[in-house]
Structures are given as structure tokens and as C-alpha cells.
Design a protein that fits this description.
The complex is a heterodimer. By secondary structure, chain A is mostly beta strands. Chain A is built from 4 helices and 49 strands. Chain A starts with a helix and ends with a strand. The model of chain B is unreliable at 140-146, 160-174, 177-183 and 189-193 (pLDDT under 50). The chains are: A mainly beta, B mainly beta. Strand 48 (744-753) of chain A pairs antiparallel with strand 4 (51-52) of chain B.
């Protein structure tokens, strides 16, 4: 009844007291700071700035003393006598300055006890972690945290608490990124330079998020420095990066431009002949601009585009003619976000966003032989895309000093071309084949309401999200709730429940991150997926240290798997002229995921680290698979141990290291061979069950050294990935070994491994 | 602790151990139209076993019988094919159920199959022009009936060459599980071949098979296995064959009924 009361009296609430409200920003760059603690010392009331740096704090009748503090910045304290109450204020925090000889380290913590489902990494933290080929990567940094595991060796795709990779919502400045992979998954699409911060929710989902079952990764780009111009970048073995930022109008508007590209294709170009050209590149380009219209209104425009292209062209001479072969594989993401932030009242903040996102994948292959007249040709094209037009409204309304109401609405209009397949040939007669799945469109929308409150030691967040999807005419209420209690100044206990719906499915090879991701809408046969996530959290937090224990249970219905023997591309039988239907290759079932996650973190001193241990199970049951019996999922790894540490020897020199151990995961591997004739050695493979084989354990250690110049601006990064050259399993296959002297064949299971010890070096500059 | 215990209690999802794979396999497809009834019985080999390339996989000492509701036959080992066989002198009939019994080394295996009813499709239209062969087959039964049919087609042209024939496959096998088969009429309208310019006539051969469900599913999956390339195999879901042998063996005892249609078209 009480929430209803608040809604009815929405516009009259909040008038009963004076308030100080506005934004907290970095004093140098004037970028907004999220998560800053603003405290009224008279009342001991504490609020945090929201994602957009906004806060609103109640004042008492007399003079109030306000303190503002944020890790890594000098705290400030001021009296409200000095403020013009009634209009938005801008509070500036300046980074802590240390002498060159002083070594002081204090890093932001991953866990906030009052937000138990969320993990947060700042851009600076992401850039400290040694990773494959020295490339910094937010997705891979999160894979070193409990409950988040990489799908396969070196892959940026990840699984959260046993979920599939498509159950993770990847957001870049609020726009959905539909394919997070570059270079067959070895790098993510998130260029680290323009990243301001990244947060991941793996449980206790706030009701403003929805549309995926397992996690929300929310990456925010920097806004650009409003005071001075700057350029920074890096030259690495695989990629080079360049970023420029600065004011458009000093103090009022700014821009940031950032690019990254691989260049192996350009370097080998002079060494390739006309007859054969093979190459690959990926690139990213980020741009953002923001304009302060007046103290209450600010607009933002951010743009991202990235693409991968693999190409191969052969010109093979024949007698008096040529045989031409062309193969191209290209995939690309683009996003555009325009946003208005508006302070409508001292206690009312609004964000309105218009967002466009696109992902496409195109594979083309062709041969042409001009010996014949007319020339003979084969042409094959596979194309898939998704367009997403979204309008979103978010409102933060401070009903009381300790009660925040968040409410909003969102509508996404999707256009899908799931599969546009075309094959043409004149080699054996004119032939044109099209096996297209129909183009589709759908609306996905939601209304949400979320109360975030505190009372003494109790804190809570409770909300409702009403989600709908037009293709299936689904209208699903999603309840969200979290309640916690500070048992002492250091110890906190909390519990959370979230219900999530997912209306679009990913059809992809489950293994090694090929870019052949194809998004399809749910329909009457392939129904929307749903998850129920229950989690319990215990957190021990004291200055410089944090210990966190999570227990979770996630139940999923409408989980997708491939039917027996189908191709993820569905192109094995060209003679099949049926209209292509996804329900012919996918089947749906249930999944249970549960486990415990223990994390320890040290954030102060020369030596800082985080470490995690996960004990988990992931089980599925499908009527169409494994004779209807339950089986362990590919993501089922019983034990995962992770460690990431950094030792700051001096302000110029630091050493960092990662260690990961994951117990083996299940795969379907043939156990036996079945013959239908004799003598004959072509056998049929026999499986004792679905995911019947468990791989060997995975473990590796990476180390990195960062050496800065005397001005602490430019630095060298030396990284060694897989330090002790562990041959971790990537795939397994059965290979036949023939012994013709004994007249026998022996089918042997062979492990393929991918990445050996891999040193790298990069130079990073800033001026 | 209570809350953590609750999660632990909720989190009990039993996964059965994967069953052991039997050490014997059986493969037999019988048909009223075949002159021979054959059953192949062999060892099942594990990964890393040494498998003989030459003959040596079959089980030589089995007693094999096939029973009909009223009669039975014993199958004997054929030393050339390594299969147990006997002649089919009208023993296998449409619509009857047959039982396979195999015994050797204290092992008793059994399976059964029902021979599909005899369906005679009606050839309603056929034509060949340019590179296109068009064929219409109509079913005696109307409506989308439960059935497991497959139509294969071949076209042969007389082109007055010493080699005799030029042939083409008019499309892949057409199955009742293909979505545009409506249970009443099949139209094959396809041509993966070029009609030679000097051909005088075309002979069209259509083979219509009705399968029992176990055999139909098995053959569909064999198609997938045989069509996949070595490269794509790494990116496709594995093929899980389904078996219908009781008593400790894997394999298939299935049946089909065949109807051949031949039509000559003058060009």
C-alpha cells in the first residue's frame, strides 16, 4: 500500500524539505563521477551519486556540513551557507596527488555490500591486468572474477553462473552490443582506452535491466576532458590505439575520439603476390560528445563501430585461363546513443535515451573459371543481421532522504534478418538456391518501478518490471527484490531474488567464438526463456579488505540446445529446398545452476589483489536430448580458482600476475565405434550420453611488468601469457591411426591446444 | 546458515551416470521386396582399441532366428559377406510384425519391427524439359497421415554414346519430415543435371520407400553423418543414433517396403 501511496503523490512528494542536489565531477576533466559518497554530517544521511553523477540530499533548518568522498580523490567538506539552495550545484573532486617517491595505493573495491549482485571495475583497474598479448580488455578482466568464466581458451565470450553466452546483456553507453568478439573471440569489442567504468550484475538485478537471463554488463565510456586537450595511445604487437579528448567549449562541452586497429594485414601486404592474398583485421572506433545546455540539462552523443574482416583471394593459373577463388568473412557492430540528462526538481532526475544498434555477419565464397564460355561460377552468400531501435526513459525520484524511486519505460523495435542464404552455380546447369528464414520484426518493451531504501542498518531494493514481446504476445511481470542487514559495522547479510525473461535467442556454434552469431526472435515454438535467480550474500568489509560469500540458485526454462546432428549454419544439405526454420535445429529444455562463490580482496598497500573460488553445478534436461535424462552442461566446472594481484614496487615500476584454475568441463565425445559391415573400416560413432566426457583441467599463469617514465605518463607493458606453457584443452577429436603392417586402425582421442607461452610488449603514451 | 542450507537443499539435481556401452552391435534392414534377409552381428570397439581393417569384426558363433506370428526362419553365417542370411521366399510380408532372436556366448538379444503397409503412389504427371524434371506422385490416402516415406529419383538419358547413360539425381531424398510434404502429393521439381542436346529419351526411375519409425530415424541420421564435411564436423552437434535392440546390444532391426516406378519420356 505504501508504494502505491508514493505513486499517487508523486508530484507533491519531496516538497517538504530543503535539499542540496546536483552533480559531482572530476575537477580536472569535469567528467561526472558515479558512486561518490555524499554525507550530511548533521543528520548522518548518506547518498551515492547515480550512474550520471547526480545526487540529492536533504538539509535541516540550520547550517549543514556536507562531506564528499570518493576513492582516489581528495575528500571535500563545505557548509550549505555557501550554496544557493534551489538550483543544481556542481561539486568538484580532485585526484589525490602524491610525491614521486611516495607509494600509496588505494583501489576501488569490486563488491559493495549494499549491491550484492554487482561487481565493478574502473577503467584504470581494467588497464592494470595482464592479459593475452598485452591487450587490456574489460570482458576478460571480469572473467577473472568468481561466477564468471570464459567459454573457451582465450575467448572474450563468457558464461555467468552456468548461463549460455547469449544470456549476457552487453551494454556500451546503454546500447546493446550483439557480438562482443573480435578475432574469433580472442579480443572483445570493448576498446579499453575510452572505458570509464564497467559493472556486471550476476544476480539481484535492478528492475531497470532486463532482456537477458544471466548477467548485465554495463560499460560506460568516458565523456572527454572539458578543460584541456589530451592524446594517449599505445603500440602493441597486435593492435595500436589512439585516443584524443578535449573541450569543444571549455567547461561546457567536450569530445572524445578513440580508435584501435590490428595491422598484421597491412604489414604482410607487400610480401603477398597477385596470385594469393590472405588477410585479417579488426578495428574499433568510439566517439562521444557532450554539451551542458544549462545547469539542469546536459546532452550526450556516443557512437561506436567495429568490424572484423577475414579475406582470401586466389588466382590459380590454368591452361590459357585462371581459376579465381574469393572468400570473405565479415562481421560488424555499430551503436549510436543520444541522451538527455535533466534535473527537473531538486529530487527528480531524468534520463531520456534514443539508441540504435546493429550487428551483421556476412560470409561470401565464390569461384570462377574463365576457361569456359560463358565462365563457370559458384557463388555462396550467408548473411544475417539485427537492427535495434530503442527509446528509453529513466527517472530517479528521491521520495525521502532514504528512499529513492526509480521508474521508467523502454521500447525496442527489432528487425531481424536471421539467415539470408544464397547459392548460385552454372557448373552443372543453371542453379540458384535460396534458403532464407523469413525476415521478422518485433517490439520488446518494459515498464519498471524500483524502490531503493535504507532504514538504520536495513537496506532494500524492491521492484517490478512488466515486460512484453510482440512476436509471442508475451506479457510477463518480473519481480525483483533484495534485502540486507548490516549485522555490524563490517558484516552484512543480504538475500535477493530476480525473475528475468529473454525474448531473443542466439544461434551460434557453442565452441570457439566463430563470428557466426545469428540472432532470432522467440516464436510460438521457440518460446521466450525465463530464469529465476535466488542468491544469498554475506560480506565482511573493512578498510583495505573485503571478503564476500555468495550462494546462488538459478533455474532456467526455455534454454536452447542444438538437436542431434544439426549444423549451426544449416547449410550441409544444399539440395534441401525447404524454407529454413530455426525450430528444426533447436530444442528447448530446462537448466539448473547452483553454487557458492567466495571472494577475497585487498585494496590498500603496495600489494593489492583479488581472489575467488567457485564451487558450482550446471545441469540441463531436454526431452529431445540424452533420452530425456538430465546431463551436465558444457559450462559445468566444479571448481574454479582465480587470483589477480599487483605489487607496486615504486610509482614507476609494478608487477602483476593472474592465475586461473578450472576443473574440466563436459563435452560429447564418441566412446565407441559401431560397424554395419565387415570388412569395412567406416564406423559410426557411439556416445554413451550427452556431454559424456569431461576434459582435463585448465590452468595458467600470466605475469606483467609495467615500467613508467619519470613523468609517470608514458609506460612500457611487458606481459607473458601462459607463463609455464600449459597445453590447455581447446577441442578434442578422434583421429584414426592406421597400422598397415598389422592391418589395424586405432581411433584415438586427441586434445588440441591453442595458446602456448606468449610474451608481448607494448608502449603506451600520453600527452 | 539456514539460508545457505536452503540453497543447498534446493540444489539437488540428480544426474545419472552415463551407461556403459554394450559390446555387441546388430544391424538389419528387412523388406518384402528384397530376396535376401540379412543380419550383421559384430563387436563394438572402444576408443583406442585396435580394430582389424579386414574381416574380423563379426560374431561367428551366433544362432539367429526371425519369427513371424505364424512361422520362423533360421539365418546362417555367409562366409563371404560375414552376415547371417537366408532367402526371402515370401516370408516377409507387408503389415506383419517380425521378431529377431539372437543367442551366443550366454547372451540373448531380441528386437522387433513391423513391416510398413504397402502404399502404391500414383504417378500423375511427369515431364522433362531443358534441365528440369517434373514429377508428381499422389498418395492413395488423403490428409497428412502419419508415415515415414522417402522418395529417391534418378534420370537416365540415352545419348547414343558408347558409355550408355548420363544420369542425374533429381534433388535429394524427399522425406515426410520435410516441411512442405503435405501427405497427399509430392511434386519433385528439380534438376541437378543438364539434359544432353542430342538425347532422344529420358528414363526416370523413382524409388519410393516406406520405413518403420526406427529405421526411418536411423537413416535420416545416417544422411547427416554422411553429408557432413570433416571441417563442419567440429562445429556441429554430434549425431546420437537411436537403437532398438534389447538384451545388451546396440544397433537397428528395421524394415521398409519399396515401390519402384519407371517412366520413359521421349524428348
Amino acid at each position: 500500500m505504501r508504494p502505491l501511496f508514493y505513486i499517487i503523490f508523486f508530484f507533491i512528494a519531496g516538497k517538504g524539505y530543503a535539499q542540496v542536489f546536483g552533480f559531482v565531477k572530476d575537477g580536472n576533466s569535469k567528467e561526472v563521477l558515479a558512486g561518490v559518497i555524499v554525507k550530511n554530517r548533521n543528520t548522518n544521511q548518506v547518498v551515492q551519486t547515480n550512474h550520471y553523477g547526480f545526487f540529492s540530499l536533504k538539509l535541516t533548518e540550520e547550517t549543514n556540513i556536507i562531506t564528499v568522498s570518493f576513492l582516489g580523490y581528495e575528500s571535500i567538506q563545505f557548509s550549505t551557507d555557501s550554496l544557493a539552495i534551489g538550483s543544481p550545484v556542481t561539486l568538484l573532486l580532485y585526484p589525490e596527488i602524491h610525491s614521486l617517491k611516495e607509494v600509496k595505493v588505494s583501489a576501488a573495491k569490486l563488491h559493495n555490500p549494499e549491491e550484492p549482485g554487482k561487481l565493478k571495475l574502473t577503467g584504470a583497474k581494467i588497464r592494470e591486468i595482464p592479459l593475452l598479448l598485452g591487450e587490456k580488455d574489460p570482458l576478460k578482466a571480469f572473467q577473472l572474477l568468481p561466477g564468471i568464466q570464459e567459454i573457451s581458451e582465450g575467448s572474450a565470450s563468457f558464461s555467468v553462473r552456468g548461463g549460455n553466452k547469449d544470456q549476457n546483456l552487453l551494454l556500451l553507453d546503454e546500447a546493446v552490443v550483439y557480438n562482443g568478439n573480435h578475432l574469433f573471440g580472442f579480443f572483445s569489442t570493448f576498446n579499453p582506452d575510452p572505458v570509464s567504468q564497467a559493472e556486471i550484475y550476476k544476480g539481484a538485478f535492478p528492475s531497470q535491466y532486463g532482456g537477458r537471463l544471466s548477467s548485465v554488463l554495463d560499460v560506460k565510456m568516458k565523456e572527454g576532458n572539458k578543460e584541456s586537450y589530451g592524446i594517449e595511445g599505445g603500440i602493441g604487437l597486435i593492435t595500436s590505439r589512439l585516443m584524443a579528448e578535449g573541450p569543444i567549449k571549455k567547461g561546457k562541452s567536450s569530445f572524445i575520439l578513440s580508435g584501435r586497429r590490428t595491422y598484421a594485414d597491412l604489414l604482410i601486404l607487400p610480401f603477398q603476390s597477385e596470385r594469393e592474398k590472405t588477410g585479417y583485421y579488426f578495428m574499433d572506433f568510439n566517439a562521444k560528445a557532450n554539451f551542458i545546455l544549462n545547469p539542469s540539462n546536459q546532452v550526450f552523443f556516443s557512437y561506436y563501430t567495429g568490424e572484423d574482416l577475414f579475406y582470401q583471394k586466389n588466382k590459380i593459373p590454368r591452361r590459357d585461363s585462371y581459376l579465381l577463388n574469393n572468400t570473405d568473412l565479415k562481421w560488424s557492430n555499430s551503436t549510436f546513443t543520444s541522451r538527455l540528462n535533466s534535473v527537473l526538481k531538486p529530487n527528480y532526475f531524468l534520463n531520456l535515451s534514443l539508441i540504435y544498434s546493429k550487428y551483421y555477419m556476412k560470409y561470401t565464397e565464390g569461384t570462377e573459371q574463365d576457361y569456359y564460355d560463358p565462365p563457370r561460377f559458384n557463388r555462396l552468400r550467408l548473411y544475417s543481421d539485427i537492427h535495434d531501435f530503442t527509446v528509453k526513459l529513466d527517472n530517479d525520484f528521491y521520495l525521502r532522504p532514504t528512499l529513492l524511486l526509480k521508474w521508467g519505460a523502454k521500447n525496442s523495435f527489432y528487425q531481424f534478418t536471421p539467415r539470408d542464404f544464397y547459392y548460385a552455380s552454372n557448373r552443372t546447369g543453371e542453379e540458384n538456391i535460396q534458403q532464407n528464414s523469413p525476415q521478422q520484426s518485433a517490439h520488446e518493451g518494459a515498464l519498471y518501478l524500483n524502490f531503493i531504501g535504507k532504514k538504520h542498518r536495513l537496506f532494500y531494493e524492491t521492484g517490478l518490471r512488466l515486460a512484453y514481446f510482440t512476436s509471442t504476445r508475451s506479457f510477463n511481470p518480473e519481480t525483483r527484490g533484495m534485502i540486507g542487514y548490516h549485522l555490524s559495522d563490517h558484516l552484512t547479510l543480504s538475500g535477493a531474488y530476480s525473475k528475468m525473461n529473454q525474448y531473443i535467442h542466439l544461434v551460434s556454434n557453442t565452441g570457439n567464438g566463430l563470428p557466426t552469431d545469428i540472432w532470432i526472435p522467440a516464436n510460438k515454438v521457440l518460446k521466450p526463456s525465463q530464469s529465476d535467480i535466488l542468491s544469498i550474500n554475506m560480506n565482511y568489509n573493512k578498510p583495505g579488505w573485503n571478503f564476500n560469500l555468495d550462494a546462488y540458485y538459478k533455474w532456467i526454462t526455455g534454454n536452447n540446445e542444438y538437436k542431434s546432428g544439426v549444423s549451426f549454419l544449416g547449410i550441409t544439405n544444399l539440395s534441401n529446398r525447404d524454407p529454413f526454420l530455426w525450430e528444426n535445429i533447436l530444442t528447448q529444455g530446462k537448466s539448473w545452476n547452483y553454487g557458492y562463490e567466495l571472494a577475497a580482496e585487498k585494496t590498500n598497500g603496495r600489494f593489492t589483489f583479488w581472489s575467488g573460488y567457485t564451487l558450482s553445478w550446471s545441469v540441463s534436461k531436454f526431452d529431445d536430448l540424452n533420452d530425456g535424462k538430465a546431463f551436465y552442461n558444457r559450462q559445468d566446472r566444479r571448481h574454479i580458482l582465480e587470483f589477480t594481484g599487483k605489487y607496486k614496487i615504486s610509482n614507476r615500476l609494478s608487477f602483476s600476475s593472474n592465475f586461473v584454475f578450472m576443473s574440466g568441463n563436459p563435452l560429447s565425445v564418441a566412446d565407441a565405434m559401431f560397424f554395419r559391415e565387415d570388412p569395412y573400416y567406416n564406423y559410426l560413432e557411439v556416445y554413451s550420453g550427452f556431454n559424456n566426457f569431461r576434459t582435463e583441467h585448465y590452468h595458467r599463469m600470466d605475469v606483467g611488468i609495467t615500467l613508467k617514465d619519470k613523468k609517470l605518463k608514458n609506460f612500457w607493458d611487458f606481459t607473458i601469457y601462459n607463463l609455464y606453457n600449459r597445453k590447455n584443452p581447446y577441442t578434442y577429436s578422434i583421429e584414426n591411426t592406421f597400422d598397415l603392417s598389422q592391418r589395424t586402425v586405432r581411433p584415438v582421442l586427441k586434445r588440441q591446444w591453442l595458446i602456448p607461452i606468449l610474451p608481448s610488449i607494448s608502449y603506451n603514451f600520453k600527452f | 546458515m539456514f539460508l545457505f542450507s536452503t540453497i543447498s537443499t534446493l540444489s539437488c539435481m540428480e544426474v545419472e551416470d552415463t551407461p556403459d556401452i554394450p559390446d555387441t552391435s546388430v544391424y538389419s534392414l528387412i523388406s518384402p521386396q528384397d530376396t535376401l534377409i540379412e543380419v550383421f552381428i559384430a563387436k563394438v570397439y572402444r576408443r583406442a582399441d585396435f580394430i582389424p581393417l579386414d574381416s574380423g569384426k563379426y560374431i561367428p558363433n551366433a544362432k539367429v532366428f526371425i519369427f513371424s506370428p505364424t512361422d520362423s526362419v533360421e539365418l546362417k553365417l555367409n562366409s563371404r559377406t560375414k552376415k547371417y542370411d537366408c532367402r526371402n521366399d515370401g516370408f516377409i510380408k507387408n503389415g506383419e510384425t517380425y521378431y529377431l532372436k539372437i543367442s551366443f556366448d550366454n547372451k540373448n538379444l531380441s528386437a522387433q519391427t513391423r513391416i510398413p503397409d504397402k502404399y502404391v503412389p500414383v504417378l500423375s504427371d511427369v515431364s522433362v524439359s531443358n534441365s528440369l524434371a517434373t514429377l508428381s506422385l499422389e498418395w492413395q490416402k488423403s490428409g497428412r497421415q502419419q508415415g515415414f516415406y522417402r522418395v529417391l529419383s534418378n534420370v537416365e538419358f540415352d545419348i547414343n554414346l558408347r558409355t550408355g547413360f548420363y544420369w542425374g539425381n533429381a534433388g535429394g531424398p524427399l522425406d515426410t519430415q520435410d516441411t512442405y510434404f503435405n501427405g497427399e502429393r509430392i511434386v519433385l521439381e528439380d534438376g541437378n543435371f543438364t539434359v544432353p542436346y542430342n538425347a532422344k529419351k529420358a528414363d526416370l526411375y523413382f524409388s519410393h520407400n516406406s520405413y518403420d519409425p526406427a529405421a526411418y530415424n536411423f537413416i535420416r541420421k545416417l544422411d547427416v553423418i554422411q553429408n557432413r564435411t570433416e571441417f563442419l564436423k567440429h562445429f556441429e552437434a554430434p549425431v546420437f543414433l537411436e537403437y532398438n535392440i534389447d538384451g545388451g546390444a546396440i544397433g537397428l532391426f528395421g524394415s521398409f517396403s519399396n515401390y519402384e516406378i519407371h517412366k520413359t519420356v521421349l524428348l
